[in-house]
Write the structure tokens for this entry.
Amino acid sequence: MVKEGIDFEELDDGCVLYDTQTDKVHSLNATAAFIWSCCDGKHSVGEIASIVVECFKSEGETALRDVSGIVKTFSDKGLIGA
Amino acid sequence: MYELRHRLQSHSFTIQTGYEELAELSSQLYPNSRYEGNGSADMVYTLKQRDNGIAGRVYEIYENGVRKYERESKSRLFSRLEWVITCNTLSCLPEFLQLHAGAVVKDGKAVLVPAEHGHGKTTLITNLIHNGYKCLADDIVLLNTDTLSLYSFPRCFMVKGDGIRMLEEINVQGHRHGYYCEHRDILYLNPAAVNGSLIEKAEPYAIIDLEYNPNSKSELKHLSMPQTCMFLMKRSINLKDYKRKGVAALTGLARRSKCYSFRINNIKDAVKLLSQI
């Protein structure tokens, strides 16, 4: 679930996230931005990976590993919470 | 007493001195923001000189009557004065998001070059204005966060050491448009004197992440907008005062612009490649 206080600035090829509580800025490429938009508390990591496979023509196993890694990074950086 | 009155956007300042030579050198710093007239200034800088016995002559800078700095040579005096005026003026212009960047304009399109000191901004921009571009700034650009228009910070280019040698090598004749301070160790180059090329305001068109590397070939590559945003933020002087509004403005600037990474190993290639934008 996306943490409160994160400003989302959409760009053609990704996005910029601004954490208003820590004053930190994060740049995301197009794939990471897409995954970010799926982190709405309604989709599991497995479901997000399935959507990524469909939209980005990735391999299922690779997509699951990549999505897990990105979601963990979001979590480590305090951008998403439980 | 010599008095040089200046206005930079909403900030006014006066440089005053009783010494003709110091007045002449002072007049080279911000020649394009001078105005004639009366009225009080937001800040008055007074320059004095005195003989200090065995230590020789010393030069002093006073801010609104308070003695602040002392230097042993005119070159160091004017380096400090230029720096102090720039810092004070920027702190008085909170209405702009300030970027450490140069910028040139051609056919109404502004090319913004954010970069730190020593990355070749002044050298590149000096060459571009000798090749048909107009100058918005060589070191500081002011951004209106509502309209995303870019504004000039119209000081002279201050070229030192290797920069002077490079300009001489590429046959930019400094003495025709510039003014050497003391031992030819600082060159003040007035962009307005080069085909009257200084302009005050422009709309963004392209943003360049400049890297000078003599060991690799010159190339211009697309840079992603998120990456562009990040390096714009790093080059912002007062983003901390703007926070989310600043982030939104810089994102908007990237969104509105073509974004490039520009690696150069010589200045002629750089001018040629940039003309392709």
Observations:
- Residues 74-91 of chain B form the longest helix (18 residues).
- The first strand of chain B starts at residue 2 and ends at 8.
